[in-house]
Amino acid sequence: MRYSGTIIRPPSEADSYLLQVTLGCSHNRCTFCGTYPDKLFRIRPIHEVLEDVALARQRFPQTRRVFLCDGNALVLCTDRLVRTLDALATAFPLLRRVGAYANARDILAKSDAELAQLRANKLEILYLGLESGSDEVLRRIDKGATAAEMIEAVRKASQAGMRVSVIALLGIGGVELSREHAEQTARAVNAMDPHYLSMLTLMLVPGTALHGQWRAGTFQLPEPEALLVELREVLVHLDGLSRCVFRTNHASNYVPLSGTLSRDKPRLLEVLDEALSQGPSVFRPEYWRTL
After folding, report:
1. What are the CB-based long-range contacts (under 8 Å, 24+) for 3-10?
2. Among 97, 87, 5, 93, which Cα is nearest to 52's?
């Protein structure tokens, strides 16, 4: 296997074989993201990808999960993806699922039949960064998609039989738009009804545009208590979700929560309220927080 530059994957893909099918991110303009600053987007030649699969077959024949890197593998044409998925299924007889990051416009660019074909070839879970349900926040961070587009994309992937894990960012609206960010994010998630919702907490990465705005004083990051109040606002407004598993167990967060919203929302609010009542002494220490 050969890898180029920084490689990231969701926490739930910790045991997956990571196959780099693209380099970088085709959008790569989000103001908060410092993942691919030195990596120009390109699609890896298919022969290189297939060679890596052959190598992995020799080293990890018991592979059950594969994650397609980098930032948005779904930008690949369907034929290229199917060819890669077929090679993975042949190489790994025990393969259960393949996952990938995806952005809204890549999902929407594919027909229902194409998404169904990818699902039939074991592309079973997609990870989509909503970040915020507020279009003003999305505009400010140069997300490259509206809330409505991301809602439509999640629904479309779900209708094709894929599971979708949605990721949102506490603090991304700053102090100014904190309440709007929380309420509109919950509204968007309610409309999506995803299988998973993960809330991460914004960490300002040196070298990013948002870090520069913070240093210049044009962006103000909420204090830890205010971030947890924002999280509480999101939770309060989440409603009508049929299956959504909610998590804040990423290392960036101050208080870890986990549960199924349709069943556990009162308990999650109780745990969060208890943490807020006790204050920073029970928050995750800053030196433990990381991306």
Report:
1. 4/39, 5/36, 5/38, 5/39, 6/35, 6/36, 6/39, 7/69, 7/70, 8/35, 8/69, 8/70, 9/67, 9/69, 10/67, 10/99, 10/101, 10/127, 10/165
2. 87
Tokens of 84: 């890669």
As a whole number, mean pLDDT of residues 154-159 equals: 98
SS3 category, 62: coil
Q: Is 253 helix (H, G, I), strand (E, B) or coil?
A: coil
CA atoms within 13 A on the CB side of 65: 12
HSE-CB at 57 with a 13 A cutoff on CA atoms is 13
Cβ atoms of residues 18 and 9 within 8 Å: yes
- The structure's pTM equals 0.96
Q: How far apart are CA 73 and CA 110, in angstroms?
A: 13
pLDDT in tens, 205-242: 999 999 999 999 999 999 999 999 999 999 999 999 99
Every domain of the chain and the residues it spans: 11-283
Is the Cβ–Cβ distance between 40 and 25 less than 8 Å? no
From the options 3.20.20.70, 3.60.20.10, 3.80.30.20, 3.20.20.140, give the CATH code of 11-283. Answer: 3.80.30.20
Q: Distance (Å, rounded) from C-alpha 97 to C-alpha 251?
A: 25
The two three-digit tokens of residue 223, written as one number: 């204090």
Question: Which residue type, as a one-letter code, is found at position 136?
Answer: E
- pLDDT confidence band for 42 (50 / 70 / 90): very high
Count other Cβ atoms within 10 Å, centred on residue 267. 11
Task: Dump the DSSP string for 144-166.
Answer: SS-HHHHHHHHHHHHHTT-EEEE
